Amino acid sequence: MPKGNPDKAATSFTLTDNASGEKYELPVLKGTVGPNVIDVRKLYAETGHFTFDPGYTSTGSCESEITFIDGDKGILLYRGYPIDQLAENSNFIEVCYLLIYGELPSAKDLETFEHRITYHTMLHEQINYFFRGFRRDSHPMAIMCGVVGALSAFYHDSTDINDPVHRFIASTRMIAKMPTIAATAYRYSVGLPFTYPRNDLNFSENFLYMMFSNPCEEYVVNPVLARAMDRILILHADHEQNASTSTVRISGSSGANPFACVAAGIASLWGPAHGGANEAVLNMLEEIGTKDRVPEYVKKAKDKNDPFRLMGFGHRVYKNFDPRAQVMRKTAHEVLADLGIKDDPLLDLAMELERIALEDEYFIEKKLYPNVDFYSGIIFKAMGIPTSMFTVLFAVARVVGWVAQWNEMIEDPTQKIGRPRQLYVGATQRDFVPVGKR
Ligand code: CMC
């Protein structure tokens, strides 16, 4: 069925202009599950009015078949499959296939897909010189933004966005090369020699190898950590029309180069209200320092005159619990147990913060619960990953969502360049006054 087909119209809304008494019929479109949407595409042409929705709190920007979220019930589905089932039974590569193609692969298709990803993990040698141009203390997200954007200068054979083969090659390259870029950014910052991917390891094992191996000894991958990493990647792989995904879609809507669009997504993800929250959680826990200071910080978070927010709490869509956070909480305990970390002061502090915030009237009333970033930072820290790398790992996972959504957008026959309008509240037309007469 073509996208935006009026056959999907569930009912309609009647809009009345109280000034003129004129009535307008607005179709209501029905999805397979979730709230219906009022189709306002003809609103301006018919009424001369725009809608006003800063932050897009009530706006559906596109049709999508990829990810579904029910924020009240704490449901997250990738192509219909619940996130907890995927986290428990699948692996990141299979989830990449699912998000991109819409169905779980056969064993043969999975093998072919994994082979393709594996054989695209190496970076063009010239790209390594880009890393060396950065200061050693550069934030790895800054490096990742720059290097992924620079990929657009390397792959001229995959930039016809209207060719599905080109799109597939560009998508494969991005999914495959992100861990190598992330690991190289890290190694550069600590002065370790750059390393090359190993094709005998799976995606997550290879990532840990590229991060932590050193040329002087054999690196043995810890299976519990590799499994935890894989699970974290699955949990972060897509999240429907969040800020970074919408950034990738809106950048791509102009027909822009896909690598450059993903670099824009990385920039958006970096912010502390989005993917940067996992780093911010750790920084916040370190600032709080001891359990007895938790009430003081909870008080600050509730103070309207204080800009401080409890990082890792709250979500635009989840208003009961974040299903990713539940899987992540379990994984955090598994990792700490495997590493023999019994009394981690930071984890104790996090648990105390979680306990107090969950019992607090302010957080209950505003439906602020721990989100995925609250726990992921604790796991990353236990694995020995530096705080500045946390959001980079989010990007390694989310790139699959970005490319799946970008491909869906390009294939959508109703797709148009993203071009919101505004409510102008500035000066009305006035005549220019030369500087000497002002
Ligand atoms: N601490 C204290 N108060 C908060 C918090 C918080 N973490 N989050 C929201 N509030 C309050 C906020 O002050 C507002 O109060 P009031 O109604 O009195 O003005 C109310 O709750 C609603 O907040 P909002 O900012 O209008 O809600 P939003 O949907 O625009 O923001 C959010 C969602 C995630 C940006 C916000 O909850 C936040 O800043 N959380 C901390 C950062 C964080 O953990 N982000 C990661 C999100 S999950 C990963 C991802 O999606 O990238």
Descriptive account of the structure:
The strands form two sheets. This protein has a three-stranded antiparallel beta sheet. It has a three-stranded antiparallel beta sheet with strand order 4-5-6. α2 runs antiparallel to α9, α10 crosses α18 and α12 crosses α17. The longest helix is centred in the middle third of the chain and has 27 residues. Helices cover 50% and strands 6% of the residues. The structure holds carboxymethyl coenzyme *A. Carboxymethyl coenzyme *A binds next to α17.
Category from helices, strands and their pairing: mainly alpha
Coarse shape: globular
Instruction: Tell me how many strands there are.
Output: 6
Q: Termini distance?
A: 62 Å
Contiguous runs where pLDDT drops below 50 for at least 5 residues = none
The overall pLDDT average reads: 93
Give the neighbour order of strands across the main sheet: 1-2-3
The major beta sheet can be summarized as: 3 strands, antiparallel
SSE order, as H and E?
EEEHEEEHHHHHHHHHHHHHHHHH
Task: Tell me the Rg in angstroms.
Answer: 24 Å
Q: Total helix count?
A: 18
* Percentage beta strand: 5-15%
Give the fraction of residues assigned to helices: 40-55%
Bound molecules: carboxymethyl coenzyme *A
